[in-house]
């Protein structure tokens, strides 16, 4: 039993470890380790295409995660105030946002936006007084919108579970002590749900930062880090990709561990 | 005049839900409707979409039958192989592991799931590629082994990518299991094996169902794993969609395939929920 579990851990981590190991390889080889070197990290960080892709990814992940955390939390708070029928519709749509495959979300967003832009761009051009009318197109906005759809539902799910575990009695006790609904929210509910909101934010950030398939459809001419890595892999395996991959891994590792600590805190508090 | 409490309450509810409702409508409901409309259209001569009302795209679905078969076979098979590895692992974590280290051991399983699937799949390109395992095999005299771009490589990638997602729900259902039931079974003279099959396994079925359903549904829309490890030879519906939208630009046909894929997902989900309802009441999955 123990041996099997060890094998599972080796299976999960050995491939990752290999990628990390070869990112420090002095030579170009992907099979022979010829010495320790940081040269591939230097090459990667000196690559302007890569840095632009990284900046794009950070902007998109941060914006979509902030929007997802705020709107998702508001949705979680609002949903419990709805009647059963409206609530079921709302929860159904949220579930759909999570369950529908990313490839379909990407396609549907692409198709809809191209149709909308195709209609409004000529209209604006006709009405625009100046020389160069603004053109709407795919880019930051469309990626943020498509990522935010999934991550908002994810945050709502996480925060809703936390609210459900709070119990009504603490809110009722606060109301009995003549606290206004706003005071109750601000002083009782918010501090209790804040760790799960933060955890949701971090997961949303991680998802957006790592997503390839949704962005692949709706990125337009923008390049995100996963799109860059994907394109480089198709051109051939080099230690530079390993260096980028290692940096991506470390970034998501930090985020997910922070999210887990926040969610764990909530669990130990609620049980103990 | 101050607002009546009920009106005020409704206003607050509306304000709380307005942004997410708008988002769901504009970026989920509308795009999906647009996709359905596109699926009844025709391909414009230069690629893209041209308005029409025809069922030709749906009639043309058999042209991509291979992608459908590959997906509909490898997704459930992948989920099943995942299950075979995941169940003992989840059992170990929930029942056998030292409680002091349990949290850390569980974390070690979950964390890879939240790191880039692209990078994790890339790692296997590395290992299975000609300079990886085949290279090592040739050193001991076994020549010309091809591992990359085979169904086996795709299956391996699937198990690797989705194992954490399968372990978690099973672990949760096993962890909730009342230990006294196991003791009672042993006290009544059942051998461990028969306790496992008559008590532990049936009680963990909801977790098994959740895991199988989650992994199958995600696999139905998979693109990266067959793309990188199947190398265009083992392709899924997701790969056909990328080709139709970004290369051959046949948007109506692509839309018809995407709509069909969603229908398949809905059917799988409904079947899974049916079975889950039959075997037990409520259960909650902890994905994090």
From TrEMBL, chain A:
Membrane topology term: Multi-pass membrane protein
CC terms in the record's Gene Ontology section: plasma membrane
Source organism of this protein record: Rhizobium subbaraonis
Highest taxon above the source species: Bacteria
CDD domains (alphabetical): TM_PBP2 (cd06261)
Name of the protein in its database record: ABC-type spermidine/putrescine transport system permease subunit II
Similarity annotation: Belongs to the binding-protein-dependent transport system permease family. CysTW subfamily.
Keywords: Cell membrane, Membrane, Transmembrane, Transmembrane helix, Transport
UniProtKB/TrEMBL annotation, chain B:
One cellular component term from this protein's GO annotations in UniProt: plasma membrane
InterPro entries in the cross-refs: MetI-like, MetI-like_sf
Alphabetical keyword list: Cell membrane, Membrane, Transmembrane, Transmembrane helix, Transport
Transmembrane segments: 72-93, 105-127, 153-174, 195-220, 251-273
CDD domains with a match to the protein in the record: TM_PBP2 (cd06261)
Pfam families hit by this protein: BPD_transp_1
GO biological process: transmembrane transport
Topology versus the membrane: Multi-pass membrane protein
ABC transmembrane type-1 domain span: 68-274
Superkingdom per UniProt: Bacteria
Predominant cellular place of this UniProt entry's protein: membrane
Compartment list: Cell membrane
UniProt similarity note: Belongs to the binding-protein-dependent transport system permease family. CysTW subfamily.
Protein's name in the database: ABC-type spermidine/putrescine transport system permease subunit I
Organism: Rhizobium subbaraonis
